[in-house]
Amino acid sequence: LVAAFNGGFKLDVDAGGFVSWGRVAVPLRDGLGSIVTYTSGQTDIGAWHQEVPAPERPVASVRQNLSLLIDNGRPAASVDCVSCWGATLGAVSDPARSALGITADGHLIWAGGEHLTTAALATALLGARVVRAVELDINPEWVAAYLYGHRGGVAPLAPVPIVPGQPGVPGQFLSPYSRDFFTIVAR
Length: 187
Description:
Blueprint: E1 3-6, E2 18-20, E3 23-26, E4 33-38, E5 43-47, E6 59-64, E7 70-71, E8 74-75, E9 97-103, E10 108-113, H1 118-127, E11 130-138, E12 145-149, E13 158-161, E14 181-184
Antiparallel strand pairs: 1-12, 1-14, 2-3, 2-6, 4-5, 4-6, 7-8, 9-10, 9-11, 12-13
């Protein structure tokens, strides 16, 4: 295990779908921002049935969450619409937010932090040369990412928060958790 970060909105808020190894938790919807992982281990991001999935590539999993935050290197036209990007605790416009983007050469970029408008999150991702991105979960309780130190393989994993001062996720994604999340593993 190299890293882990929060997933998308709870599936019962009707913001997207989820499929893993052929099992459908919530049906996928055309046009929604989709994080697609192929059986090869490669991941891509795009609008479902428009940019992803790639033809002839077997899909392992798909997680959708709203429309794309960034597409073709440009922020969504609705980036300044507060209600378009999820309900925030306390109705603030700048809660903790997170997103996953991809660069033109296939590098995944996770971005997140406290007090972020959707426009500020998109600007940060564009600064990292992201060409497509999906907003993930929002609000302080659910935005978290960790890198894991292995200490020579003899001690328990040491989670290191990526966002300084993040409230954290109970168990730091190393124990069962009530919300979805992504893991990055080395082969």
